[in-house]
Amino acid sequence: MRSDNIKEGIDRTPHRSLLYATGMTKSDMKKPFIGIASSFTDLIPGHVGIRDLERAAENGVYSNGGRPFVFGIPGICDGVAMGHRGMHYSLPSRELIADMIETIAEAHSLDGLILLTNCDKITPGMLMASLRLNIPAIVVTAGPMLSGHYHGNRLSFVRDTFEAVAKFRINEITEKELNDLEMCACPGQGSCQGLYTANTMACMTEVLGMSLPGAGTALAGSAIKKRIAFESGARVVDLIRNQILPRNIVTVDSFKNAIAVDMALGGSSNSVLHLLAIANEAGIKLDLRLFDEISKNTPQLTSLRPAGEYFLEDLDFAGGIPSLLYELKDFINTKSMNVSGKSIGEIISNVNYVNNEVIRKADNPYRKEGGIAVLFGNLAPNGAIIKSSGVTSSMMKFKGTAVVFDSEESAMENISKGKVKEGDIVVIRFEGPKGGPGMREMLAPTSQIVGMGLGEKVALITDGRFSGGTRGPCVGHVSPEAQEGGPIALVKNGDKIEIDIPNRKLSIDVSEAELIERKKQFTKKPKKIDYGYLSRYSEIVSSADEGAIVNRNIRK
Asked: Entry's PROSITE patterns (predicted)?
């Protein structure tokens, strides 16, 4: 066992002495040491219930002869961090999380890991760590929140609360209605109720094979979720005994399956960024064109919030990811394995119920193509991402006039003052991984546009990101980013821009000669944050089309 490095032999007498000081017994020294990386915090709803999962996972480990140790990992809620300085830290926290887990696991020679997570960047960060370390590991996502209810309508936090603010500002709802809604939108623990980034990544984790069947959609606080945590604790001991490693489970085909499910769900555009980064840690090179190829050949079988009307609880009650995989069996590799020891084919052989409205059959999809499209053109030579499932048919092709802002704050101020009108394309730049820094989500500007009734009349383009809650013609991850001198940095007010989703094009109606001339005048902007972690991060982070990664030296 790896843990023998700290507990076996005469030379390890001091090490054992320290371990005994924690209350360990001599019999514990013969057991595999399993770290439970817990992102519990009582600050955010997605993670407030993780303490219960810690106990369940510990009991599972004990039940199968292992010795668990809980250690803490930070958790950021993008909803709380949104719209202020905090959002600069969200994406960079993914790298910190991966590094922290690596640090603890290596410093203490842990034999295996249980990774307790839920919200947007924590799950991909933990997956990155598991594949980097390549020691036995299982992920347990804490699960989605139940829908809120207000005046007979179901609510999801991201879509309903952010858009309600804009509705209040144009006097469509009263302040009392706004206050009443904020008290109803989030009824308890769990991740946001729709197919936003946290739930998208929970589903991706299950499809990649790193969490037990059903884990991706099982509701927060439910008895099922606690049983999954217990079973994960017991199962990781078996993985250690049999030396079944993350890279044995997560293969190229696993990623292709995850991308297909992402497209069938119409998941968050952030999933592209995270899958690229996770694959990098596995030594697997993914390309944006692969995402687009799979999207073109995968039907969208669900219609979940924010663009649709169903919630994660509906998906779970319809059988969750196993039921979706059953309907996608002709589009995926069913031989891919899961930490349970079963293949996808074996898992879906037990599917006996599918709600054909929540999860449609492949021959009756919501859309013939997947929910995310990759655009290229002279405005995005290295690619850009749009959640096409959230775009109405009337906006699939859109030409408009550029209204340019060099920060989210500037855009918000001018949108609220009515400076953006029908037919405009809002360009928010210098918000990429380096320029932001941290590639902030532009949920507030998009929600304001939708809430003001301009959702089908105005488009938005950025080198930043979008929340999983974004809907409408919003193009993000434009690469290269503005801070690197990408074409988005050269756009001027009044330029004509074309978004053509069916033909996968994002272009500016400016000649190549003019763009070259503008490039000569370009200079990088000074760092927005020139101290601490974000200053270091901005110097080493890669482009969005590579996953906004900082670790390029992959462990063999």
From this structure: ILVD_EDD_1, ILVD_EDD_2
* Alpha helix (H) residue ranges in 245-395: 246-249, 252-265, 270-281, 288-296, 312-317, 320-327, 344-348
- Which residues are within 8 A (CB) of 418 and not within 5 positions of it... i.e. 6 or more apart? none
Give the mean pLDDT per block of 10 residues along the chain (556 residues).
97 98 98 99 98 99 99 96 93 98 99 98 99 99 97 88 87 95 96 96 99 99 99 99 98 99 96 98 96 98 93 97 98 99 97 88 96 97 95 94 97 92 97 98 86 90 87 93 98 98 98 97 94 97 98 75
Residues making up the chain, counted from first to last: 556
Taking phi over 0 as left and psi of -120 to 50 as alpha, with beta for the rest, 218 belongs to beta
Kindly name the residue from 467, 507, 538, 542 that is annotated as catalytic.
Answer: 467
- Dihedral angle at the C-alpha atoms of 172, 177, 178, 184, nearest 10 degrees? -140
Q: How far apart are the first and last CA of the chain?
A: 20
- Structural domains of the chain in order of their starting residue, each with its CATH number: 31-146+191-348 (3.40.50.2300), 377-546 (3.50.30.80)
Q: Which of 37, 72, 74, 75 is nearest to 57 (CA)?
A: 37
Q: Which residues pair with 460 in a beta bridge?
A: 426, 474
Extract the annotated binding site.
Answer: 78, 120-121, 441
Question: Taking the CA atoms of the chain, what radius of gyration do you get in angstroms?
Answer: 23
Total-model pTM:
0.96
- Residue 271 known to be catalytic: no
> Annotated binding site for Mg(2+), which residues?
78, 120-121, 441
